[in-house]
Amino acid sequence: MNTDLIKVKQLSKEFFDLISIEDACNAVNEEFRGLFISHTYANSAIVGLSKNGNMVMGNIVENEEDYKEYRKQMFNHIDSANNCRQILMLINTPYKLLWFKYVRHFLSDKDYGELLKDIWQGSENPNQDVNVSLDEVIVWFKSAKKHFLMDKEELEYFKNLPSELTVYRGVSRGRNPKGLSYTIDKEQAIWFQNRFSTEDEPGFLIEKKIKKEDVLAYFTYENEIVLNINQEGDRYE
User: Is the model's pTM score more than 0.70?
Assistant: First the structure.
């Protein structure tokens, strides 16, 4: 099927109103409120607005008219988009997986695979998304056509994986040890292990021997292996 861009645009507009400004403010630490927010289409209260042909700065938290103008501006961007990727670029990064959940049923196989890859790799911490469970993500990766999910080099590497291989996951302070993201590069995993670690809260390294059949995808960036941790009742516990 082809991507139903009209439906994607409709859902993307509804997505704007998913979170109120009040909730967007409450979603960030109190010390940052009033400046930073966590809205589906904004991470800052201060936004650029086009008024009378001039670009001005507005405050969508303190000024209701600025909020309405920003909403109108985002809707115009959505309406003028020629493809889903142009809409995706408007979405605040922490909500991109959730947006995919909204629109995935209306995507072509090509858009489905390519957007899932872009969102997964572009998110800061997709393994701990509060809006999307890892069980859901596993289903999405299993549903994606491999030749759209991976480029030619990645697909070739994926096809040539041995029947059994060793992968690593570096778990730093505050990160989910039961994530899907592993790597074949031990040094890369150690970097993630130490990324946010402190002397009081050190990270740790997970090393697993896995079966090729449980690999959902391979991505050249960070030599990532996306692993189906639920296979056979989570055999990797």
Answer: yes
